[in-house]
C-alpha cells in the first residue's frame, strides 16, 4: 500500500455541554486542545447550539448570540469555527445536559435561532441540523423554519 500525505484534511472538535467529566464545555477548554496541536491550520471547532446553551452560553437572544460569538472569538478565535450543529435544548440554560430538541421547541427558542441564522460571523459556515425530529415536525419543516428566520 502506498501512503499519501493529505494536506487538506482537518480534525474538527465539538463543544460539549459540560456533563460529567467531558472536556470542551467551556471555550477555554477548546482553546487548550487547539494549543496542543502543532499544525493549527488542520484543526477546527463545530459549535453545537444545544451544547453551548447547556454549558451556560446563552444563545436564546440576539444579545446572547452576539456575546457568545464575541467570547468564542476572544478565547478560541473565529478562524477556528468550521461548522454549526443546529439544535434546540430540552434543558434550561446551564443545565449541563445533552438533550437535543427540535428547532424552536426548546429553551433556545425561535428568537435564538433567528439570531444564529442572521449572525454575519456564521454566514460562510455549514450548518448541520442535528435534532431528534418527529412524525409531526420533520426535517423538511425544520429546514423551512430555519430559512424563514433569515
Describe the overall structure.
This protein is an alpha/beta fold. It contains 5 helices and 6 strands. Strand 1 (11-14), helix 1 (27-35) and strand 2 (43-48) form a beta-alpha-beta unit. Helix 3 (62-75) crosses helix 4. The protein starts with 10 loop residues before the first strand and ends with a helix.
Task: Give the helix proportion (percent range).
Answer: 25-40%
Which strand order spans the largest sheet, edge to edge or round the barrel? 1-2-3-6
For the sheet with most strands, the description reads: 4 strands, parallel
List low-confidence stretches.
none
Which word captures the global form?
A: globular
Number of helices: 5
Whole-number total of structural domains: 1
Q: H/E series, N to C?
A: EHEHHEEEHEH
How far apart are the first and last residues' alpha carbons, in Å? 49 Å
For the record, the CATH class is Alpha Beta
Question: Roughly how many Å is the radius of gyration?
Answer: 16 Å
Our estimate of the beta-strand percent is 15-25%
Q: Could you say which structural class the secondary elements and strand pairing correspond to?
A: alpha/beta
| The CATH topology | TIM Barrel
CATH superfamily: Divalent-metal-dependent TIM barrel enzymes
Q: Report the average pLDDT across residues.
A: 95
| DSSP strand count | 6
Core attributes:
150 residues; alpha/beta; TIM Barrel; four-stranded parallel beta sheet; two-stranded antiparallel sheet; 5 helices; 6 strands; 15% strand
